[in-house]
C-alpha cells in the first residue's frame, strides 16, 4: 500500500478526518476501515440501506450491551451502532450518539422517526460534539456564538470563560451517567495530543462499575512519524493506530480496571512498511465506589492457572483462600476474573472504630494472611 499523500504538517488531524468522513457520508467508501459481519444480523432489518452502507467500523461493540442500560456511542457516524444497541437495551434503556460531523449526523437523525416507529419506541438521540470533550455541546456553542459579538481578543476570552462555565455546570454528557460506552474505529482518528483527555472523558461519564467496550485498529509496532504525517493514512484509520500494548495501557493509566482483550483479528487488515494493522475489541471497567464496612471476605482463585495477579498487584494462588477487605473482593468481582473466584464473606462486628483491632486479632491485613 502506498504511503504517498498530503502531509498532516499542513492540515490538522480534525480537519482531515472531518472532510473525509463528510465525503463518506455522501458516497460509500468501501476501503474506509474494515467492516465486520454483525453478530445479530436480524437487528439490521429495521435500518435503511443508507445507514448500513455508510457505516464505517472495525468491530461489533454493540453486542456487549444489555437490556435497560444507558449507552453512549462515541463517533456514532450515521447511527448504525446506536440503532442496533437501541433494540438490545429495549424501551427501558437509552442510547446517545456523539459525533462532530454534521453530514454524518444528518443521515443518522433523518431516520430517527422511521426507526422508532418500526421498533415501537424512541430511545435514541444524537448530539454534536468532540469525543475528547464530552462536556461541550457544539450545537449549544453555535447558538451562543450566534447571540454573542466577538470583535476582539477580550470578547473571545470572555466567551471562552462562558463556554467553560457552561461545560462545567451543564455538560453535554453528565459525569457518572452512562452504563456502557461504545466506540467503533474512532479513537485512532483523534490527535495523539488529545488522547489522554479522550480516555479521561470516557472514564468521567461512566458510572462506577460501568464499562467501556472499544473496537479499534492497533498496530504491531509503533507507527513512525512519516506515516503519522500522512493525511490519507491517518483519516483511513491506519497511521493513527495505537500500538496494541499501548492501547491497553492507556486505559490502565486512566484508572480503568479488569481490562481485557475480547477480540483480535487473526489476519492483519493492512500491512504498511512491514507494520501490521488489525482490529481489536477491548473491555475495561471503571472501578466501583467502595466504602469500608468492617466486612472481610475469603477469596479463592479457582484456576486453571497456578496463580494470577490482579490490577492492584495482589497475587492469587490457585485453591488458596485469601482474606481481604470486602470492598477489595467487590472490586475484583467485576470483569473477567469474576467467573474464576469464590468469595465467602465474613464479618467481625462492632463499630468502625473497633474494626482495626478486631481484624488484627483475626489476622486480617496481617502479613501472614496476605489480607488487603
Outline:
The chain has 372 residues and is an alpha/beta fold. The protein contains 13 helices and 14 strands. The strands form three sheets. Strands 1, 2, 3, 4, 5, 6, 7, 8 and 9 form a nine-stranded mixed beta sheet that branches. A three-stranded antiparallel beta sheet has the order 13-10-14. It has a two-stranded antiparallel ribbon with strand order 11-12.
Q: What is the N-to-C succession of helices and strands? A: HHEHEHHEHHEHEHHEHEEEEEEEHEH
CA-based shape: globular
Q: How would you describe the oligomerization state of the chains in this entry?
A: single chain
Proportion of residues in extended strands: 15-25%
Structural class: alpha/beta
Q: CATH first level of the largest domain: which class? A: Alpha Beta
Number of strands: 14
What integer value in Å does the Rg equal?
23 Å
Main attributes of the structure:
372 residues; alpha/beta; Rossmann fold; 2 domains; three-stranded antiparallel beta sheet; 13 helices; 23% strand; disordered C terminus; S-adenosyl-L-methionine
3D structure, described in words:
With 372 residues, the protein is α/β, with parallel strands linked by helices. The protein folds into 2 domains: 13-135 and 171-285, Vaccinia Virus protein VP39 (Rossmann fold), CATH 3.40.50.150; 295-361, Ribosomal Protein L9, domain 1, CATH 3.40.5. Helix content is 32%, strand content 23%. It has 13 helices and 14 strands. The protein has helices spanning 13-26, 49-53, 80-89, 102-110, 112-119, 138-146, 153-169, 195-205, 225-228, 231-235, 244-253, 326-332, 352-361, and strands at residues 70-74, 94-99, 124-128, 178-184, 206-219, 242-243, 257-264, 270-272, 275-285, 295-301, 307-309, 315-317, 322-325, 341-347. The strands form 3 sheets. Strands 1, 2, 3, 4, 5, 6, 7, 8 and 9 form a 9-stranded mixed β-sheet that branches. It has a 3-stranded antiparallel β-sheet with strand order 13-10-14. Helix 1 runs parallel beside helix 4. The longest helix is centred in the middle third of the chain and has 17 residues, at 153-169. The N and C termini lie far apart (52 Å). Keywords: Methyltransferase, S-adenosyl-L-methionine, Transferase. Belongs to the methyltransferase superfamily. Arsenite methyltransferase family. It comes from Pirellula staleyi (strain ATCC 27377 / DSM 6068 / ICPB 4128) (Pirella staleyi).
